[in-house]
Amino acid sequence: MIEITPQLSLPEDELAFETSTSSGPGGQNVNRVETRVTLLFDVGASPSLDDEQRALIEDALATRINRHGVLRVSSQRHRNQIANREATVERFAELLREALTLDPERKKTKKPRAAKRK
Length: 118
What we know:
elongated; single chain; alpha+beta; 3 helices; 22% strand; three-stranded antiparallel sheet
């Protein structure tokens, strides 16, 4: 289980991973070993999300979600696949955490006296 917030945890079987060759570090292995990891998460079909959470995620991460409703997060920072997989899961959790936090409601304030005088 991947803990996003105290109220939301996602099972790992809802995530899919793809690997490909990376343009990042790796020395001689860069052209031969698939070290880039891309995490795929189907936001629309996830049974773990309720409608409100789904709407918040789709709104906040609209640029990362394709037309089929799949969220993509990739990493090629590290030289091995395992480290990149962990990095994608961490980044995925961080993105969802940020998308699900609501901004505090703005409190109305009085106009300052000096502004009224001007």
